[in-house]
Write a structure and sequence with these properties.
494 residues; mainly alpha; 21 helices; globular
Length: 494
């Protein structure tokens, strides 16, 4: 009996210590979630349901969800969110490259490195003074160049620790302060970005007007690179399928992903003849690789339909984004001669409808390269067994082969975690940037789903509609997370 009383007393004491946390979870997590779920099925609008107009709150069923999908700008703002998420592969790849660079020792021996560091500091200070007294675009270009050289020299003196600090610094800087800084950088008239771009654009306009044929050739060269990327990934899928490392369903899924830019390009910036040419070339590439499958892989088709889908999707989506970039640049070059004839001007970054989203993507990429993803990759790189690298060296593997066959498979669990978390953050994020830098404009170009929920709930007062939007966003996040978990888990296990 005394032992039981002692345990009961310990349980009551433990419950007393846990009670504040339990009440906090119930009050600030469980209750708001349940309340928002109930709220989504009502017509609660602060313009009609308040202390001055006490109208009854009615249950409306799925009316908010139907209106959300068919009568609002939800689909448009979902497209904005997905467009901004196209920067995720570049951010993840940049974090991996940064981690691989920061895993090397960059310190220079002797005291000469510190003399270089001192000279770099003097150079940066001098160019800053030249820019301040009105040297203009040339001074700004010189200043940015000297800062880059100063960072390189800093690594010689401080070693990899200096680089890691510089790369990670944007991540722990206050978000709003960073957004305000970038808003100043993007200023069309006085911002340093446009100040540095003006002499470059003037030289580009002069070169374009002097040799428009070179611009046309560069455009087709970019399209050729996109085509080579398409042919390469189709061939890679065919070889993996023929070797039994990839299932037929996974190969078709990845091939469909890399075919999306071809379809978009044919309806985007090309004439009917050029569009037909693109489709014919893409069809020939698929046909040739398909013939190779029939001839070489007939006896090796032993893999399951979705076997290796993780690897196929990573490769396919990465090449898809690369093709979009190349095709987009070719579209810019197509209209470049007409723009150069009138003179090239730097873009009005945040106030231009077509540049607003890329502006936010550039800023997000700058911050994401040195984020926690870089630290995760740094930790994962230290856990790669050195015996695997030694075996690869004995087999005569190149640096690229060492990365693709040794490093990349060992980083699969880390990449899977980063992909899942980046997808969730990408769907839920964007509010701070839009609120601080553009207020969702111009013309709703940077309004994401999270900012849309804020506008509906806290500016227009339609709380029930905002709650319905939040739950639809939750379902989208849940669905994509389950897809990532299903296919990505197979990739990790492979």
């Amino acid at each position: 009996m005394p032992a039981f009383a002692s345990k009961s007393r310990q349980l009551r004491i433990a419950a007393m210590f846990l009670l504040p946390n339990f009440l906090g979870v119930v009050t600030f997590v469980i209750f708001p979630v349940v309340f928002s779920f109930v709220l989504a099925f009502t017509n609660w609008d602060l313009r009609r349901h308040n202390a001055y107009r006490n109208e009854p709150i009615d249950f409306v069923g799925f009316d908010n969800f139907m209106r959300l999908l068919f009568e609002s700008d939800f689909v448009r703002y979902l497209g904005n969110t997905l467009f901004l998420m196209m920067g995720i592969p570049f951010a993840v790849g940049g974090a991996l490259v940064a981690a691989m660079l920061l895993s090397q020792d960059t310190r220079a021996g002797g005291g000469r490195a510190y003399l270089y560091l001192l000279a770099a500091g003097v150079l940066i200070a001098s160019t800053a003074l030249l820019s301040a007294v009105g040297l203009g675009g040339s001074g700004m270009v010189l200043l940015l160049t000297s800062v880059g050289c100063g960072i390189l020299v800093l690594g010689l003196g401080g070693g990899v620790t200096a680089y890691r600090t510089l790369f990670y610094m944007p991540h722990f800087t206050a978000g709003v302060a960073t957004f305000l800084l970038w808003k100043k950088l993007y200023n069309p008239q006085t911002g340093p970005i446009n100040t540095a771009l003006r002499p470059v654009l003037d030289a580009t306009a002069s070169a374009t007007n002097a040799a428009p044929a070179l611009v046309s050739g560069a455009r087709w060269a970019l399209l050729g690179l996109a085509g080579l990327a398409f042919v390469w990934v189709i061939g890679r899928l065919r070889r993996s399928w023929a070797d039994g490392d990839l299932g037929g369903g996974a190969a078709c899924l990845s091939a469909t992903a890399v075919g999306v830019p071809v379809g978009v390009a044919s309806a985007w910036s090309f004439t009917a003849g050029e569009a037909w040419l693109l489709w014919v070339l893409a069809g020939l590439a698929v046909a040739v690789q398909g013939a190779g499958v029939v001839v070489r892989g007939r006896e090796l088709r032993s893999a399951g339909a979705m076997s290796g889908v993780g690897t196929a999707l990573v490769m396919g989506l990465g090449v898809m984004v690369l093709m979009f970039v190349l095709i987009g640049l070719s579209a810019v070059l197509e209209s470049l001669p007409a723009m150069a004839a009138e003179g090239l001007e730097p873009p009005n970054w945040l106030t231009d409808y077509h540049w607003a989203k890329p502006s936010l993507m550039i800023m997000g990429l700058w911050g994401a390269i040195g984020s926690n993803n870089m630290l995760l990759y740094l930790a994962a790189l230290t856990n790669v067994p050195q015996e695997l690298y030694e075996a690869a060296d004995i087999d005569g593997a190149s640096r690229l082969q060492r990365f693709w066959h040794v490093t990349w498979p060992q980083l699969a669990p880390t990449t899977f975690f980063i992909a899942v978390m980046s997808t969730i953050y990408g769907l839920q994020g964007g509010f701070e940037m839009a609120r601080t830098m553009t207020e969702g404009g111009p013309a709703g170009a940077t309004t994401t789903l999270s900012y849309f929920i804020y506008l509906e709930g806290f500016e227009t007062g339609r709380l029930s509609f905002a709650a319905a939007t939040a739950w639809v966003l939750f379902l989208i996040v849940l669905a994509l997370t389950l897809i990532n978990w299903t296919f990505g888990n197979k990739y990790v296990n492979d």
